[in-house]
Write a structure and sequence with these properties.
Distance between the termini: 67 Å
Number of helices: 6
Oligomer: single chain
Helix content: 55-70%
Number of strands: 0
Radius of gyration: 31 Å
Shape: elongated
Length: about 170
């Protein structure tokens, strides 16, 4: 901000007092002389985590295109699966209750896991990222146990909204 103010204040006076390339050069030299940092050719090399090379994870079949394709198939299958479960009224076909409950929990887990991987990266948050990852995993296991208990010992996931509406 200050360097731009110096350049703005000296440039009009320089052009009014003299003309040509030398006057512009002298105005820019005033700005360069007032700078507190020196120019380093090639730029400074900072030590630390910013300029460290990226460590690539080992290749895995569950990541990349297979993982992406599975997410899309799961998301696309939720719409007809939900419609089929409500049409057949879950108590007659408990398999739909189980499939829908499992698919919804898996879809939610994959979505929250993607948010943690993208926004709370292990390299930037070395303590918080594993805590959130294991919290998500334990919450997913807890929800799966709850969905199983609700579908086997209670009215089931499909009949619950029907009982709420009546």
């Amino acid at each position: 901000m200050a360097s731009s103010m110096i350049l703005r204040s000296t440039l009009p006076r320089t052009f009014t007092s003299a003309t040509g390339r030398n006057s512009l050069r002298s105005a820019l030299q005033v700005r360069a002389a007032s700078s507190t940092t020196q120019y380093v050719p090639g730029g400074p090399i900072l030590k630390g985590t910013v300029n460290d090379p990226t460590e690539f994870p080992p290749p895995s079949r569950t990541h990349g295109s297979y993982h992406w394709a599975f997410e899309r198939v799961l998301a696309a299958s939720l719409v007809p699966m939900t419609a089929a479960a409500f049409v057949t009224s879950g108590s007659s076909y408990p398999v739909f209750d189980g499939l829908l409950g499992l698919s919804l929990v898996m879809h939610s887990h994959i979505g929250f896991d993607s948010m943690i991987v993208d926004y709370v990266h292990k390299r930037k948050f070395p303590v918080l990222s594993p805590i959130l990852t294991w919290t998500l995993r334990s919450a997913t296991v807890g929800v799966l146990v709850g969905v199983y208990q609700f579908n086997t010992n209670d009215i089931g996931a499909i009949n619950a909204p029907c009982h709420l509406l009546t």
